[in-house]
Amino acid sequence: MENVSTKDGMPEGLTPSEVVERLDNYIIGQNKAKRFVAVALRNRQRRIKLPEEIRDEVAPKNILMIGPTGVGKTEIARRLAKLCGAPFLKVEATKYTEVGYVGRDVESMVRDLMAVGYNMVKSEMQENLKAKAEPMVEEQLLDLLLPGSGSKKTKSETSAKKPNVHILGNIFGNDSPVQGSLIQIDMPKKSAESESQDAKEFSEKQEIPEEKETSSEMSETREKFRQMLRDGKLEDRMVDITVHQQPHFSGIEMMGGGSPEDLEASITGLQEMLSGGRSKRRTMSVHDARQILLSENLDRLTDSDKVADIAKDRVEQSGIIFIDEIDKIATKGGEGSRQDVSREGVQRDILPIVEGSNINTKWGVVNTTHILFIGAGAFSVSAPSDLIPELQGRFPLRVELEALKKEDFKRILTEPKNALIKQYEALLGTESVTLKFAEEAIDRMAFIAEDVNSHAENIGARRLHTILETVLEELSFSADKHAGETITIDEAYVNEKLKGIMQNQDLERYIL
Question: Exposed (0-12), middle (13-18) or buried (19+): which is 202, by Cβ within 10 Å?
Answer without folding.
Answer: middle
